[in-house]
């Protein structure tokens, strides 16, 4: 030991700088790893909050309200709706009083917020559950826009906005929604049960609005038998009851093809396209459940 003590100065002189460098690099790596973990946690928290906010905006819009977050850059419309909500004694901000042009602007803001949150989540989140929530949110947006586009296509010309309100047809929106719902249903074993169940309700809603009642009923039957809890099973049973009690609507779904006829060429087929439906007739099926994204 005495010899070791005596030779230590020489040892440190020969190897001290190298040892110090190793220690410094080790400590620096610890700092960098900690910084990376903290940064990643902050990023994931921000993604979760953005996704939750977007879901809230969409649900408010589906209920006929304009959330304050979509009115930040439209002070005049915001002031009008706030006054309307006060007069009604309601904390919500109704959009029913808006004209077509203002409603189209709000719809665009809702679309922007949802699409931004979905894109950010799918790009930067590695959490399968959160990615599934984003996919479900996008599907619900497309389903609701499909319903609105259908309603507008059957509305009287005088009530339609002069600017283009939708960039897709109702069926194109339904197709986009169905694609995302199908993807989530296929991943049911890997994602939260509530998300998979919401996707099944969404797919059934798409079938209802296409007037594919047998397909919708098959999904509801499956949920009623194997749903994750009693509440979900009751919701599915209620949808089945509605399908049984409410007659099929021939105005929904793709237009029927004219039947062959032996009548003279001047006689036209009587089967018309779905676009001739009266303005008051529109699909109403929407997903019976929605997720509550938690940060």
What does this molecule look like?
The structure is a single chain. This protein is mainly alpha-helical and about 300 residues long. It has a domain at about 125-250 and about 280-290. About 65% of the residues lie in helices and about 0% in strands. The chain is built from 8 helices and no strands. The protein has helices spanning about 1-60, 75-90, 100-125, 130-155, 170-185, 195-210, 215-225, 230-245. Helix 3 (about 100-125) runs antiparallel to helix 4 and helix 7 (about 215-225) packs antiparallel against helix 8 (about 230-245). Mean pLDDT is about 75; it is low at about 255-285. Keywords: Membrane, Transmembrane, Transmembrane helix.
Oligomer: single chain
Give the ordered list of helices and strands.
Answer: HHHHHHHH
Round the Cα radius of gyration to an integer and report it: 29 Å
What are the segments in which pLDDT stays under 50 over at least 5 consecutive residues?
A: 253-284
Number of helices: 8
Tell me the number of strands: 0
- Percent of sequence in beta strands: under 5%
Helix percent reads 55-70%
Give the structural class: mainly alpha
> What global shape is seen?
elongated
Average pLDDT reading: 75
Q: State the end-to-end distance.
A: 58 Å
- Main sheet characteristics: none
Transmembrane segments: 21-37
Region (Disordered): 248-295
Biased composition (Low complexity): 259-295
Keywords: Membrane, Transmembrane, Transmembrane helix
Write the topology of this structure:
Layout: H1 2-62, H2 75-88, H3 100-124, H4 128-153, H5 170-186, H6 193-209, H7 213-226, H8 230-245
């Amino acid at each position: 030991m005495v010899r070791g003590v005596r030779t230590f100065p020489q040892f440190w002189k020969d190897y001290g700088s190298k040892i110090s460098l190793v220690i410094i690099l080790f400590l620096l790596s610890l700092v960098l790893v900690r910084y990376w973990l903290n940064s990643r946690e902050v990023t994931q928290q921000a993604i979760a909050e953005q996704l939750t906010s977007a879901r809230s905006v969409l649900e408010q819009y589906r209920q006929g309200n304009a959330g304050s977050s979509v009115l930040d850059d439209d002070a005049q419309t915001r002031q009008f709706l706030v006054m309307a909500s006060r007069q009604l004694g309601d904390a919500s901000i109704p959009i029913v009083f808006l004209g077509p042009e203002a409603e189209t602007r709000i719809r665009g803001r809702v679309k922007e917020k949802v699409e931004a949150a979905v894109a950010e989540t799918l790009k930067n989140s590695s959490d399968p559950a959160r990615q599934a929530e984003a996919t479900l949110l996008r599907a619900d947006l497309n389903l609701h826009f499909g319903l609105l586009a259908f309603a507008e296509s059957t509305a009287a010309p005088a009530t339609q906005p002069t600017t283009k309100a939708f960039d897709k047809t109702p069926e194109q929106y339904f197709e986009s929604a169905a694609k995302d719902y199908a993807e989530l249903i296929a991943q049911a074993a890997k994602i939260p049960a509530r998300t998979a169940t919401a996707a099944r309700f969404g797919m059934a809603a798409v079938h209802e609005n296409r007037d594919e009642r047998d397909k919708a009923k098959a999904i509801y039957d499956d949920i009623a038998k194997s749903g994750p809890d009693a509440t979900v099973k009751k919701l599915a049973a209620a949808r089945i009851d509605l399908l049984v009690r409410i007659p099929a609507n021939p105005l929904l779904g793709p237009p029927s093809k004219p039947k062959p006829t032996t009548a003279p060429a001047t006689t036209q087929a009587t089967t018309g396209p779905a676009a001739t439906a009266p303005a008051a007739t529109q699909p109403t099926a929407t997903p019976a459940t929605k997720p509550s994204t938690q940060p």
